[in-house]
Amino acid sequence: MKALEGVKILDFTHVQSGPTCTQLLAWFGADVIKVERPGVGDATRKQLVDVPGADSLYFTMLNHNKRSITLNTKNETGKEVLTRLIKECDVLVENFAPGALDRMGFGWEAIQKLNPRMIMASVKGFGPGKYEDCKVYENVAQCAGGSASTTGFLDGPPVVTGAQIGDSGTGLHLALGIVTALFQRERSGRGQKVLAPMQDGVLNLCRVKLRDQQRLAAGPLKEYSQFGEGIPFGEATPRAGNDSGGGQPGRILKCKGWENDPNAYTYFITQAAVWEKICDVIGEPEWKTRPGYATPPERLDKLNEIFDRIEQWTMTKTKFEVMDICNPLDIPVGPILSMKEIMEDEGLQKTGTIVKVPHPERGDYYTVGCPIKMSDSPVEVTRSPLLGEHTLEILKDVLGYDGEDLARVTESGAVGELKQAAE
Ligand code: CAO
Hints:
With 423 residues, this protein is an alpha/beta fold. Helices cover 35% and strands 12% of the residues. It has 2 domains: 267 residues, 3-Layer(aba) Sandwich (Rossmann fold); 86 residues, formyl-coa transferase, domain 3 (2-Layer Sandwich). Helix 1 packs across helix 7 and helix 6 crosses helix 8. The two termini are 23 Å apart. It binds oxidized coenzyme A (CAO). The site of oxidized coenzyme A has 25 residues, from helix 1, strand 2, helix 4 and strand 5.
């Protein structure tokens, strides 16, 4: 048995944010029915194509464990099918541009009338307010949510991060909202509307930067490198390069081979509790007692010098040797791992976080499996559906359409071609 077994999700999501959410729910055991436009489908099926004729990795890696039905929801018979699906399902998830569901005739009020127990969950770029009508993609959210202004180096422009905190991050927030609403429905008997705006989701992940914004009123942020460099602080939380976000100073330092390998670096944290061990490891034992170096507050204006010295040491070791030496001493370090190294990591493959998935059109590919491990709800990653692969199956099994009804629905053009599910 899986945690969400028996929960039916009507999945109107596309691109990345919404599909991240429904993929998680599918991994937790929900029956996720992805609704796609006949002949078109989720736009990402045909974006960044690497194997001609096959669904792209962009699509396959975000839509595992789902079923696909093709349905034209602007066609009258299509609306009839959608009405039936709304009555059968527990949750409708969507990340259309603002107003698209209303234009389709299935806004929140209409849905509540059809199924008062339904949870309607949406990702939008912005919450209610002056930007609520905007279409939004990942990097716009990173910029509007405070991430870009606080990422990068002080002397450079704002930078967006590789972590998809706007899309996948908001998908995660939405998934939590949905399971919480399902939990509340157990007691209230009612569905509810769940909204996860991308700007809000990014800001939630940038919480510590809003913390720093307010700390500025009390003086310079002493753990930021710019404090030690004597650069005055402005009105807003500055970009902090690779400084550690917390009270324990940290930096990215070069390791052996950095001249040729762009990822021969380590993150090194000078945690106060292990300062003496750090001094011994790097060959500066007198720093343990030397005035100006012995306590964390004294060191704050010397971080550049201290990290330069630590880097002289890390440059004599590979990033993995640094890890091997520091870990037993409880000195927190972390190698900068490339995507290639991560994909080939045996440990991650063993835990199911990196998974090899077979696909009838494209062959085997790697994906990121479920990052949340539950002892009583194991996850088996299965491939993403082909476009409309389960249309017939869903019409029959979920909606109970028989021969005559099936013929009518098909002839109307509402559901596209009826395929038998592929192996
Ligand atoms: N049958 C018939 N019509 C369908 C359909 C179906 N099965 N599925 C979708 N459509 C229609 C919609 O009703 C909409 O039509 P109208 O504009 O006429 O009402 C249309 O397809 C396109 O929807 P869209 O505006 O959402 O798509 P887009 O490509 O223009 O915009 C995006 C994409 C992502 C910018 C926009 O959806 C958006 O802002 N979403 C919210 C924020 C978000 O999730 N952003 C993250 C994107 S990356 O994860």
